[in-house]
């Protein structure tokens, strides 16, 4: 049995295949698409972290000047849950190794902050370096997320 | 008190990033300069707080690790912005091919 009834049909099929192939290749993606869930989760985590530092600073500036780690375990638990969720989400997206590495570094920052808090902070000034590092990290992450939107092509 | 040359650290960080991002350096330079300046100052603050005994030695080490992670995150963003710039250039070139083919053939083929 002949697969194509005529030479013209065969050429048409070939042309359609070529057009389809070229169209599918016309936009090159070297890095993952923007993912709204990832961006939102990172934004929520940034807000919770900002709240943590505001509360911590107030507690350290109080009369007794203490900020017991035990009063902050809820924050660290929620942050760890959010980061685990983010690790799974970012790992499931293609060409997403840069965002994945950023989430891993962020998890490391939270881990080290928790260890530093367990030791105990002596003053509000003592929390300035990690606060600055967090601001730098979250700004960098947000900058890449905004760029990944590629002019709202895939928001 | 132990001190560091913030300007020197800043210059070295910039030089390292420029080496990696040579092709797209001009695009990311303003962002990189601002962030590396902040990071250099933060490093100096950690050293001062430890020297004044306002943080423990263990906390200073943890702060340095936090600092290193934030530097990595900034460098990853710079790398990502560079990849996006390359992607944009490739797609712009492909658009030219698309326009050329469509114009030559007289209808919208691709």
Automatic annotation (TrEMBL), chain A:
Protein name: Uncharacterized protein
């Amino acid at each position: 049995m002949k697969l194509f009834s005529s030479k013209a049909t065969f050429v048409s099929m070939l042309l359609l295949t070529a057009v389809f192939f070229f169209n599918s290749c016309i936009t090159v993606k070297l890095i993952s698409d923007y993912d709204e869930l990832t961006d939102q989760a990172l934004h929520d985590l940034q807000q919770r972290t900002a709240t943590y530092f505001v509360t911590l600073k107030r507690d350290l500036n109080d009369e007794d000047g203490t900020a017991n780690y035990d009063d902050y375990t809820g924050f660290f638990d929620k942050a760890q849950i959010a980061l685990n969720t983010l690790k799974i989400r970012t790992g499931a997206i293609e060409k997403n190794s840069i965002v994945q590495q950023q989430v891993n570094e962020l998890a490391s920052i939270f881990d080290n902050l928790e260890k530093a808090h367990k030791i105990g902070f002596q003053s509000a000034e003592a929390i300035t370096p990690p606060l600055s590092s967090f601001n730098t990290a979250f700004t960098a992450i947000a900058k890449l997320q905004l760029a990944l939107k590629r002019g709202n092509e895939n928001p | 008190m132990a001190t560091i040359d913030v300007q020197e650290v800043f210059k070295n960080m910039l030089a390292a990033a420029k080496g990696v991002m040579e092709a797209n350096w001009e695009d990311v330079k303003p962002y990189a300069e601002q962030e590396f300046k902040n990071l250099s100052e933060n490093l100096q603050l950690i050293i001062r707080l430890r020297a004044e005994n306002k943080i423990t030695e263990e906390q200073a080490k943890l702060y340095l690790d936090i600092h290193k992670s934030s530097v990595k995150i900034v460098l990853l963003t710079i790398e990502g912005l560079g990849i996006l710039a390359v992607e944009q250039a490739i797609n712009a070139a492909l658009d030219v091919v698309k326009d050329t083919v469509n114009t030559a053939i007289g209808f919208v083929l691709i």
